[in-house]
Every structure is written in C-alpha cells, then in structure tokens.
C-alpha cells in the first residue's frame, strides 16, 4: 500500500518481541524498513519472529496480504552504522538497560544523518535520561508501542523539555500513518499512561500469587468475570513476556520476592510466556 508516513525510511534497532512487531507494522503500511540486531544469529531469530507475527497479523487483520508480505520487504542488517546511514527515523527497541541504550544512541548519533529523528520504545526509562547521549536532544523523544501492535494499536508520544514540538508532531503523524492511535503526553511520566496503569495492576496480581492467596487461573478468572475484561493479569504477563516482567521486578527492591519466584519457577525452566510456548499457561 502507498504510505503517508512523514518518514519514508525507518530503521528499527532490536528484533525482540516488540522490535519485530514495530518493524512489521511499519513495513505493512508501505514504509521502507531496515531492522538491526547485533549479529547474524540474532537476525535469524528476529526473522523467525517477523514471520510468526506476520502470519498472526494476517489472520487477524483485513489487509492480510500487506502483513503476509511485509517480512520480505524488511532489510536485515547487523552493522549499526549501515543500518542508520540513510534513516529518516530511528526507533530503538533494545533491552531495557539505561547504559546499553545510551551507548547505542551515542553510536547512532555519530552515524545517522543530521536530519534524522530518534525515538526510544523504552517501557520504563524516561527519554530525558537518554537524550543527551544522542547528540541531538531536540530531535529525540519516546514512542512507546503496546504489545500485539496491530490490535492493541496505541503509540504513546512523549517528549522531553528539550524535544522540538515540530518533531513530536511528525512522530505523531508517523504513528497515525502506520495504523496507530497516537497518545500524546504533555509531560514526561515513568511508564507513560499505559504502564502507569498496567504495572500496579500486574503487581497486585503478583502479590496475590506469592502470598498464596490464589493461583494464576483463579485470579485471571476473577478479573475476567467481574470486569468483562478479555484477559486476566497472568494472561497479560504471558503476552508481555516473563523476561520483561522479571527485568521490571528486579529493578524494584519491593518486588524482590516476585522476581525470585519468576526466576525459579519460570525463567530457569525456559518458560518465558507466549514466545516460548509456555508461561503461566501453555500455548
């Protein structure tokens, strides 16, 4: 399909669960996409994710062929400088570690064209903690996607006090051009709107489990039946991914018991959620 994106060439850094979804969604809407990961093995894994997500989206969306053909249109690159050399917009979705993100952005800032706009998909870090590493804080902001991008199609646009409002406007227009509902935040907020609501909810469910109040299936059933929600908290955990849940829990000393529970009973047994075929449930 022809694209109305204000950024004709987009590079996505990281082909993990969300990075692959962002790349797929962007390519399915006619944008020229390059995807970067650290080596050929990571790219091969990422290509598998792209194919899996494309098949899933094709079964759920009316424009099935756009999704089905999108992986073939995504250029895979393991050289960071090459990946960003001609990019109009770079979206970063590397692991949620501040120093890693700052290092990646410093290298991107040195290699990308002067006019390139930068966006982080960080789920918990404030863009102002990263902005100066890019060398162009006025062209940097957060663009946060929800998991299952083509269905849960929100994209939160959150700048810093240094972000040029015109840049934020262009990023908002990009989000809308690739089928997102753009959520514009007026100030920085850890967790944006979505995770500011979601993380306490998931944390309450985790507390019920580790205290032995109820098992995951019972907690999920209670929430679904009492509220009419399509999924309970542990179903959401499986979709988000238990590695992500563990990373968030590990960063908060108040969640140490929950982090240990996840590691012992799930991560150490290879149960990572939907991506591995088993988490709190089997898939």
Automatic annotation (TrEMBL):
Pathway in which this enzyme or protein is active: Lipid metabolism; butanoate metabolism
Annotated site residues (Important for catalytic activity) in this chain: 144
All residue ranges annotated as the 3-hydroxyacyl-CoA dehydrogenase C-terminal domain in the record: 191-283
Stretches assigned to the 3-hydroxyacyl-CoA dehydrogenase NAD binding domain: 10-187
Domain of life: Bacteria
Gene Ontology terms for molecular function: (3S)-3-hydroxyacyl-CoA dehydrogenase (NAD+) activity; NAD+ binding
GO biological process: fatty acid metabolic process; glycerol-3-phosphate metabolic process
Keywords: Oxidoreductase
Enzyme Commission numbers on file: 1.1.1.35
Similarity remark: Belongs to the 3-hydroxyacyl-CoA dehydrogenase family.
Protein name, per record: 3-hydroxyacyl-CoA dehydrogenase
Organism: Amnibacterium setariae
């Amino acid at each position: 399909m022809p694209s109305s994106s204000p950024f004709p060439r987009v590079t996505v850094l990281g082909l993990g669960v969300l990075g692959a979804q962002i790349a797929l969604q962007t390519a399915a809407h006619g944008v020229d996409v390059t995807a970067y990961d650290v080596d050929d093995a990571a790219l091969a894994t990422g290509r598998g994710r792209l194919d899996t997500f494309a098949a899933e989206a094709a079964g759920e969306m009316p424009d099935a062929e756009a999704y089905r053909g999108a992986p073939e249109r995504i250029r895979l690159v393991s050289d960071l400088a090459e990946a960003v050399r001609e990019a109009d917009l770079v979206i970063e979705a590397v692991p949620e570690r501040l120093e890693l993100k700052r290092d990646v952005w410093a290298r991107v800032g040195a290699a990308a064209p002067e006019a390139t706009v930068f966006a982080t998909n960080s789920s918990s870090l404030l863009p102002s903690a990263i902005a100066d590493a890019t060398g162009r804080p006025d062209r940097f902001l957060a663009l946060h996607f929800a998991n299952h991008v083509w269905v849960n199609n929100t994209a939160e646009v959150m700048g810093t006090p240094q972000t040029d409002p015109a840049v934020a406007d262009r990023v908002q227009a990009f989000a809308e051009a690739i089928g997102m509902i753009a959520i514009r935040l007026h100030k920085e907020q850890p967790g944006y709107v979505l995770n500011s609501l979601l993380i306490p909810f998931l944390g309450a469910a985790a507390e019920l489990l580790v205290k032995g109040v109820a098992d995951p299936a019972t907690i999920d059933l209670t929430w679904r039946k009492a509220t009419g929600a399509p999924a309970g908290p542990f179903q959401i955990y499986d979709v988000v991914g238990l590695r992500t849940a563990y990373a968030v829990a590990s960063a908060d000393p108040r969640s140490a018991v929950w982090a240990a529970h996840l590691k012992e009973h799930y991560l150490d047994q290879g149960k990572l959620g939907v991506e591995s075929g088993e988490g709190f449930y089997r898939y």
